[in-house]
Design goal:
By secondary structure, the protein is an alpha/beta fold. Helices cover 28% and strands 22% of the residues. It contains five helices and six strands. It has helices spanning 2-5, 23-29, 47-50, 75-84, 100-109, and strands at residues 13-15, 37-39, 61-65, 90-94, 112-117, 120-125. Helix 4 links the parallel strand 3 and strand 4 (90-94). The longest helix is centred in the middle third of the chain and has 10 residues, at 75-84. The model has no long low-confidence stretch (mean pLDDT 92).
């Protein structure tokens, strides 16, 4: 399905959270250089898979993370990734335990940062 979707030159937003998207599918989607918004919440993608997102030059919004029965993502790797996406302005990290210093770093760079995890709920922008 991702291969078919990736043929679009007009789609700028994709909400594919809670799907079975794979690394191979994500490789197709990152060819969509026009993508501005991408929701990948509750997928089985790893931090290594998510590194492909750096190839999306227009990406402004990203939602990633998992809920209880899925593997959790490493906050250090995720924050580094988020900070390396060139035009990212808004992010929602759900189910990722971000330290206060990491949160401050994200808020210093991005317009809007929302972080939710089972034991905290820190959100907001600058």
């Amino acid at each position: 399905m991702a291969k078919l979707i990736s043929r679009s030159t007009v789609l700028t937003s994709l909400d594919i959270g809670a799907t079975k998207i794979s690394r191979q599918g994500l490789q197709h989607l990152v060819t969509m250089k026009q993508l501005r918004s991408l929701d990948l919440w509750a997928t089985a993608l790893s931090e290594r898979d998510l590194e492909l997102l750096i190839e999306l030059p227009a990406l402004e919004y990203l939602s990633i993370g998992n809920y209880e029965h899925l593997p959790s993502l490493d906050a250090i790797k995720v924050v580094d990734l988020v900070l390396s996406i060139p035009n990212l302005r808004r992010v929602w990290l759900d189910g990722i335990r971000v330290e206060p210093t990491q949160l401050a770093t994200l808020k210093a760079k991005l317009e809007s940062v929302r972080v939710t995890s089972p034991d905290t709920d820190a959100s907001g922008g600058r």
